[in-house]
Amino acid sequence: MKRWLETAKTVILSLLVITSFCLTGMIWINQPNLQFIEPAKYTESKPVLEKSLEKMITPSAVVFHYGQDRHTKAVATDGQYSMIMREMPRWIFLDFTPYTLTHEKWEEIAREKLGLEVRFRSNLPLSAVGRLVTFREEYNIRLMGIDRIWLYHEPEEDLVYALFLSGEEEKVMRSRTSISPKDLRESYLANGNQMPEQIMKVVIPAKYNTSDPESKGYSYWHMYYLPKHQIRMQQFRFSYTTVPTEQLMEAYFLDPTLVRQIMERDKTVIYTDGSRSIQVRSEQKAITFTDPAYQQRILPITDEEKLQSAVSFVNKHLGWLDDYYLEDIKKSYNDKDSITFRQYIGAYPLVSKGEKPIDTIEIISEAGQVVTMSRSMLDLETYITNRDLTVMSGPELYQLIRDKKLANTEEISNTYLAYQTFVSDDYIELIPTWVVEVPNQPTLLIPAKSNEGGGRANGLE
Question: In what residue span(s) does the Regulatory protein YycH domain sit (predicted)?
Answer without folding.
Answer: 6-442
